[in-house]
Hints:
Layout: E1 5-9, H1 16-28, E2 33-36, H2 43-59, E3 63-67, H3 70-76, E4 80-83, H4 93-100, E5 105-109, H5 114-123, E6 127-130, H6 149-152, E7 160-163, H7 171-177, E8 181-184, H8 186-189, H9 194-206
Parallel strand pairs: 1-2, 1-8, 2-3, 3-4, 4-5, 5-6, 6-7, 7-8
Amino acid sequence: MKxxxxxxxxxxxxxxxxxxxxxxxxxxxxxPYVQYRNKAAPRALRRAQAAEMLRICHGAGARLIINDDVWxxxxxxxxxxxxxxxxxxxxxxxxxxxxxxxxxxxxxxxxNDLALGEEAARAGADYIAFGSMFPSRSKPDTVRAPLEILGxxxxxxxxxxAIGGVTLENAPQLIEAGADALAVVSDLFDAMDIxxxxxxxxxxxxxxx
Length: 209
């Protein structure tokens, strides 16, 4: 499956109307992917928020990916799941792939490790993510990945996603280095005009040959 463009990663917001408004603005700007992530919410709230995100994403023709929770993705009929270290059922990416089935996306965080990219590819991942590419406001202590890893990861034949500290200013060099998609939190949802910021990101991809 081709994964490309802006992936809007949600903020930890407990208020569903406010979260919905933020995501709707990003969708109005043409965001093709939304990754629902809320580390702080209890499961009942996470399910309610995820179900609403799915409704508004599909209404806008976008896909919803659930962060860290394969079973929530399956339960609500989301378009996929994105897993970090230790998030796969039983610690097995193969089990995650089987649980999601062939029609849902499986994305895997590989941090700064090409060996994890190879493992994800063997397990049937649909895309692999690397980062933090730059200092991240949402995850200040996360491991940093070198820019050249984006091009090196293309050997696995999967779409490559850059994450961590992504801004509109550094996005062009990430795309030039080999990123097919950009996962963005703060630079998108902290913008004064979220719709315009999403449009600007999408225009970067539209301008690529």
